Amino acid sequence: MRPIILGIFSAFFFAFTFILNRSMDLAGGSWIWSASLRYFFMVPFLFLIVLGRKNLKPLWLEMKRKPGTWVLWSTVGFGLFYAPICFSAAYAPGWLIAATWQITIISGSLLAPLFYETIETEKGKVQVKGKIPFKGLTMSFIILFGIILMQLEHASSLTMIELTLGILPVVVASFAYPLGNRKMMDECEGRLDVFQRVLGMTLASMPVWIILSLYGLLTVGPPSIAQSIQSGLVAISSGVIATVLFFRATDLVRGNMQKLAAVEATQSMEVLFSLIGELLLLHTALPTPLSWVGIILVMGGMVLHSYVTHKKDLPDGRKVSA
């Protein structure tokens, strides 16, 4: 249950991403700076944490061992995740991006065959190729259906350009984030703690953010003070707190594709937290009855997903919660 709780807390802090990114876009800020500034601001915070824990040297040695692998999967997990999210904020409201992002619940499950998981046998622990957790995936579709209901009436008022540029980049991000995270978990094999891994991936993704920021200087100019401040808040809440909580939750279930899918399903709570945040900070309209039905389905689906993916077989064929 602990990984699920950590996942829900991470969803709360992740929600600030969608709210503040939309706020920055409405104020005229460029998505380029919303994306790159977050990771620039994350470095000093994470560096001080890892330094205070006296864990910098092991991280350096690990990154030095396979620098190309670090750059590749950090670029996928962070670069191809956050740049599209920020880009979409220029074409769609925060609630739609947060809702579309929940497709990562399904994306993460579909990635299972690309990885190996550890199972117990009579001969001990063995590594087997992951399988798509169809039982948990069924619960994921319940969550997704609830999200569709929540946004159905709003989506009908958007143009085709807004739907395309506001949704497709988020779909790309929904696959990139779990893929990069899982690849680096497998590569580290428990040798690094969550703070080291997040700092390492942030540093390894720096080439992307440096190139993007140089492009921003040439095309839109430097960021405003207000956007820099809000990007700093995103860096702390989403980049540091939420990412560390989520990575810690996934670390606790590393090697178990079903439980990993359950942790990733907790991110559906971002829709609810984003909705509440936009109501309070951006003064959006109250949800309609149809939206409340969707909210109930999201919450119920998440509970069912957690229950189904935490069951294991007893020797006599009965089931018991893990």
UniProtKB/TrEMBL annotation:
Signal peptide: none annotated. The keyword tRNA-binding does not apply. InterPro entries: EmrE. The keyword Transmembrane helix applies. The chain crosses the membrane at residues 31-51, 71-92, 98-116, 136-152, 158-177, 198-218, 224-247, 268-286, 292-309. It holds the Pfam family EmrE. Keywords: Membrane, Transmembrane, Transmembrane helix. This is Multidrug resistance efflux transporter family protein.
